[in-house]
Amino acid sequence: MVEQKIDCAHHCCRGRPLKTICEVLGVSRSNLAVKSKRPADWVDRRKMPVLDDTALVAELHELLGDAPTYGYRGAWALLRRSRDMLAQPRVNAKRVYRVMRRHGLLLEHRPRHASSTRRHDGKVAVDSSNMRWCSDGFEFRCDAVSHCVSSSHSTVATAKP
């Protein structure tokens, strides 16, 4: 809808004030100014057909045959190095990721750390009621010629008076 309005405004603006046409049609003056200065043979490259990725997939299979544990960044680095040696154009990292995702070549995601079975909800569990808990830590470091580290940690549980 917006593209149609801009096209209509582009055709109507010949010999008329740009500001008035943009206000009447409700389009941005900056978009209309850019469109009016484009050459007639201009093509929107964002709407180009998708490239054929079969050669890239074959190249990735050849490179990753030796290292199946490489992710897309490692595969992209190998691909970039091999293409630089052959004086071929580089491939965008986003394209490598997209191709590897489409063809199932990406590594499986694993959790960063195993979830703990012991949860802490903010309450301290005590063996008996009416107990007072105290925890203290002390550390002494020397960064001089001789490296010395001393640390002391204590935890005390006493009955409340």
How does this structure look, described?
The model has no long low-confidence stretch (mean pLDDT 78). This protein has 6 helices and 2 strands, in the order ααααααββ. Among the domains are: 2-47, no CATH class; 54-102, no CATH class. It is extended, with a radius of gyration of 33 Å. It has a two-stranded antiparallel sheet with strand order 1-2. It is an alpha+beta fold.
Shape: extended
Q: Helix- and strand-based class? A: alpha+beta
Please give the count of helices. Answer: 6
Strand order of the largest sheet: 1-2
Keywords for this structure?
single chain; about 160 residues; alpha+beta; two-stranded antiparallel ribbon; 6 helices; 2 strands; about 15% strand
Secondary-structure blueprint:
Blueprint: H1 2-12, H2 18-25, H3 29-36, H4 54-64, H5 72-85, H6 93-102, E1 131-142, E2 148-159
Antiparallel strand pairs: 1-2
Quick recap:
This protein is an alpha+beta fold and 161 residues long.
